[in-house]
Design brief:
The protein is mainly β. The protein contains one helix and 24 strands. The strands form six sheets. The chain has a four-stranded antiparallel β-sheet with strand order 1-24-23-22, with no helix packed on it. A hairpin with a 2-residue loop joins strand 3 and strand 4. It is globular and about 45 Å long.
Length: 286
Amino acid sequence: MRKIALIISALLIVVLLHNVVHAFSRATITVENADQVDELAILDHNGIYFVQWSNDSNSFVVADVNGLWLREANIPAAIPRELSGHARTSSSLVISPDNAVLASGQYDNAVRLYNYQTSTEYAVLEGHTANINQVAFSADSTLLVTASDDYTARVWDVTTGEQLGVLSGHQDAVTGVGFSPNGDLIVSGSADGTVRLWHDVNDKAEAILEGHAAPVTSVTFNSDGSLLASAGEDGTILFWDVNSHEIVNVLANHSGSITYLQFSPDGTFLLSASDDNTLRLWGIGS
């Protein structure tokens, strides 16, 4: 419990930080300009566990084998600040958009929900039969979707902890999940090499997107829901038009499997982490 409290305290610092320095143009990445996305910075980190954006998109926390680090998105080359707390027992850790709940995916197949302000655990979500790979909140903070090695994703009510549905159909571990900004779609990525889009939590996938030459490791929507990005063990990032389901850009700068991919909440940055021991910050070049 103390370890979780330290992590929450550290991440609270991120939420309260507001950086006024703007080194980049901060243009929102959309389906219309996805072909203009460029690499803005390469940051060295060893053994990255997870990365968490601040809700104001100005900073992010990196958990790696050496500790918990705070970096500024606008000045990524600056020396990072080391924060107290560590997250080795968590496979995924995310703060709800309203800053009320912290969800922690665990290696014991459960997800634990904490009151973010008091550090108090109030619910344990049980239903998965294998490790949790990722957890993600809906934009209104009322729903949580979880990805597991049991080949499923599951949707939960954040207030009650009730399981609302099971997304099944993948042929291997579900490695990444997320909600579209308006909550109409859920995306899941899998070690079976596919990305799937879902409208109904108890129905078949609306679309199956195939393009990666290896297992998919992470998925993320942009801020207006028009663009989807997926990453894979092949070291590539694919951008998909959500409406046409077509690939609109491919980034292949990483030399190892990509373990994390996430748009910033305001949609101006994309952050990727890889087994090549780098974090890469992407955006529309200034």
